[in-house]
Amino acid sequence: MLLKNGKPYGFFFNAIKWKVLAVIVLTLAVGYLDDYLYTIFDFDLAIPAFFGTAIVLSLAFRTNKAYNRWWEAKMIWESIINDSRSWTRMVLKFLGNDQTLKESPTERQMHLINRQVAWNYILVNRLREKELLKDQEKFLTPSDINFLKGVDNPTQGILFLQSRDLMDEFRHGRLDVYLHVEMEEILRRLEASMGKAERIKKTHFPVLYDYLFEISIYLFCAFLTYAIRDSTTVFEAAFSIIITTLFLMINEIGRDMQDPFEDLPTDTPMLALSHQFERSALQLTGVEEMPEARHHGKYYIK
Q1: Three-state DSSP class for 260?
Q2: 173-186 pLDDT, tens per residue?
């Protein structure tokens, strides 16, 4: 997620540098040839004005839809973190006894909390298409890891393991039926949030939309340069390049935001949120040594 005081101009310009180069070449070519083309056909600023209006409306539509997808993804992850905190609190409060509430959590409690920490990180890796179980040995037992390696969806596998252990607590009388239902409801909400995130990940804007939109921007560039041919070539080129580059940058912002799980600076800050939950969970369990954050950039958090 981009920070409020960050200045990611280099990031966006680097993403469109080849497109800007194409615009420069196109603008110079039209500016050089417009005197010759004028003898064949002529038009005024009405045509580039029409194209510019259509592009502005399309940019507004795309940016709005992209922000809605990004905002939905952020709300999903805030819900995941809230449910993770509720899970930690309930595990510490209801799966212990009067003695363990005053002392360090039991191994059973730590196991259930660490699994939830791992669940968050594994879901981040899954959405960003990274190695799922990388660096999860500190949160999961060898038996858990062996089980998760045998399933296609380790996040679903962890929820299964959590539910299985809750049932074991219930059968042995260490968890009453009402608390069992409440904790199962937390697992159900986590499962629903995971499904919502997967839906956003797997649903994309049509590819042809990108191609046709960029072609429209290049046509606008050519028509604008040609329509102001009475000015010097330098002015024609500079004016067209500036306007077209602004369109390209806004389009790139929308393109990045519409896919909030691609490990880009514009992503939903899933890793930062997961790290915050890990720290808060460890603090509640009495751990003094906190992990260092490694997900910050100069102008964004991941």
Answers
A1: coil
A2: 888 889 999 999 99
